[in-house]
Amino acid sequence: MSPIVDRAMMEEVFDAEDLVTLDDEALAGIAHEPTRAFLHQVGLPNRFRTWLELDEPLSEGTVTIVGDKATALAAKYPGLTLDTSTWMTVGGIGYDNVALDVTDGRVYCIPESGALPCLLNSSIQDFAYFLHALEVERPNYDFEAESEDGYFDPDAEDRLLAVMTANDPAALACSDSTWHQVLEHVKHKLQ
User: Fold this and answer.
1) Which InterPro entries does this UniProt record tie to the protein (predicted)?
2) How far apart (Å, rounded) are the C-alpha atoms in residues 145 and 129?
3) For the segment 108-140, what is each residue's pLDDT rounded down to a tens digit?
């Protein structure tokens, strides 16, 4: 289980104005209380050059629940057994879409490759913790965020893999999980 992710922890690596929180009206459609509290008090990053690109309505404080569009997802993925009608659009990481189940707080990826959607993180808090860990390690894999001494730590991928595995093992259980692609990019220093 990930450490408690609070606003102060997220502000260690993201500017306060880049953390999108939602008001009570936007949160009304989210049944899962811990997820509602997280999105109200902590928020998700919406900043250029982060791994997550928030869905535009979400970045403006509006929640979009898939609802009726679930039929289209079911048609696209005939083997999908998940109920996508309760998914909220979060945004994307690379070309993969990210969705949140508003009933239980689980986060899913919808791979651009056409593979079946699968669990990305067990909770929104775990998802945010991974985003935080990636930002902490950024100077060790991103040439544009180069450390002051110009040194890149070749072990960034190994540390991130260890953090991900220890804190939310389900995140890497699916071979099509977006996190595998992210780790590959970290390994190759975003090249």
Assistant:
1) SUKH-4
2) 20
3) 999 988 889 999 999 999 999 999 999 999 988
Which helix (H) or strand (E) element contains residue 33?
helix 33-41
CA distance 105 to 126: 10
Query: CB of 27 within 8 A of CB of 39?
Result: yes
SS3 state of residue 103: coil
Query: What does the pLDDT look like over 56-93, one tens digit per residue?
Result: 999 999 998 876 667 778 788 888 888 888 999 999 99
Q: Residue 64 burial (CB < 10 Å; 0-12/13-18/19+)? A: middle
Residue 96 neighbours by CB under 8 Å, 6+ apart: 109, 110, 111, 112, 178, 181
Cα angle for residues 162, 166, 168 (degrees, 5° grid): 115
Is the pTM for the entire model greater than 0.85?
yes
Quick one: which H or E segment has residue 130? helix 124-137
The candidate with the shortest Cα–Cα distance to 86, out of 69, 63, 103, 72, is 103
Which pair of tokens denotes residue 93? 């990481």
Q: If you search the block for the tokens 């306060």, which residue do you land on?
A: 16
Positive or negative, the Cα torsion across 135, 138, 143, 148? positive
Cβ count near 81 (within 10 Å): 7
